[in-house]
Amino acid sequence: MLDTFPRLKERLDHRGQQPSGGEQQMLTIGRALMTNPKVLILNEATEDLAPQITRGIWRICTLICETGISSVIVDKNLKHVTQITDRKVILVK
Question: Is 16's pLDDT higher than 90?
């Protein structure tokens, strides 16, 4: 997982104390991936994160989709979701 999330590798000495919101998201996604899921549900995984962290999360989402893990991605960022998904459902209100 540390190769997938290099930011977490940099923070190993912190032993999980006071992770940022983005680091918490990375940890959550990493833990989920370690269970070898058949389906992964991501709900607003990039909400309120710094742009650099957001780009990293979208990079990971792209890799997840490329591995063949079925994913349900709920997000307001239509641009990124449509770039990495095979099928889309848009809900209004």
Answer: no
Q: Which domains does the chain have, with CATH numbers?
A: 6-84 (3.40.50.300)
Helices (H), 5-67: 6-10, 21-33, 51-67
The Cα–Cα gap between 15 and 57 comes to 21
Nearest to 84 by CA among 93, 39, 75: 75
CB 40 within 8 A of CB 33: yes
* Whole-angstrom distance, CA of residue 65 vs CA of residue 84: 7
Confidence of residue 65 (pLDDT cuts 50, 70, 90): confident
Q: Are 8 and 33 in contact (CB under 8 A)?
A: no
For 32-46, how does the pLDDT look when each residue is reduced to its tens digit (9 = 90+)? 988 999 999 999 998
In degrees rounded to 5, what are phi and psi of residue 7? -60, -40
